Amino acid sequence: MRRRLARELAVQSLYQMEMNEVNMGEAIGIVVEEAQTDDEAQLTHTKDTIALEQISELVEGTYSNKEQIDRLLLDYLKGWKMDRLSRVDREILRLATYEMVYRNDVPPKVVVNEAIELAKHFGTDESGKFVNGVLGKMIKELEEIKSKS
């Protein structure tokens, strides 16, 4: 499974969890089932273990670190509060922050680019620019911290 598709389904799962107050397993199940009927998604195997593991890892990691992620995001949301963000933008920012801060298997610039594409796909006309601005500030600081180490 492509990472982009895993990210798309992870964002949708996180959104389901927040909107419908369902648990992680239920949210992933709903989203994967919908993806299987969507020709664009190209998710072909119901029991695609690797796909489910990728989605689950992204959702679990983001959700279990949500409080720390939200605190970190607040530093970059100048003039914004988390509850003022659209739910889609909020989940995209959370997922991207999780990948940049808690994982090291994808370069941060790739994570930011993927988040921008997700925001353009799922969000409003301004979502891509907004996500780019927030994550752009974050990536600069993270790179500075890493270069000092």
SSE layout:
Elements: H1 3-20, H2 24-37, H3 49-64, H4 66-74, H5 87-102, H6 108-122, H7 127-148
Helix pairs in contact: 1-2, 1-3, 1-5, 2-3, 3-5, 4-5, 5-6, 5-7, 6-7
GO molecular function, one term: RNA binding
Family: Belongs to the NusB family.
Keywords: RNA-binding, Transcription, Transcription antitermination, Transcription regulation
Description:
The chain is mainly α and 149 residues long. Helices cover 74% and strands 0% of the residues. The chain contains 7 helices and no strands. It has helices at residues 3-20, 24-37, 49-64, 66-74, 87-102, 108-122, 127-148. The radius of gyration is 15 Å and the shape is globular. The relative contact order is 0.13. It holds the Pfam family NusB.
Overall, the morphology is globular
What count of domains describes the coordinates? Answer: 2
Low-confidence stretches: none
Given helix and strand content, the structural type is: mainly alpha
Please indicate the percent range of residues in DSSP E strands (runs of 2 or more): under 5%
Q: Write down how many β-strands occur, each being a DSSP E stretch of 2 or more residues.
A: 0
Radius of gyration equals 15 Å
What's the CATH first level of the largest domain? Mainly Alpha
Helical stretch count? 7
Biggest pleated sheet = none
So what's the oligomer here?
single chain
What is the helix/strand order?
Answer: HHHHHHH
The helix content, as a percent range, equals over 70%
CATH topology of the largest domain: N-utilizing Substance Protein B Homolog, Chain A
CATH architecture of the largest domain: Orthogonal Bundle
Mean pLDDT: 88
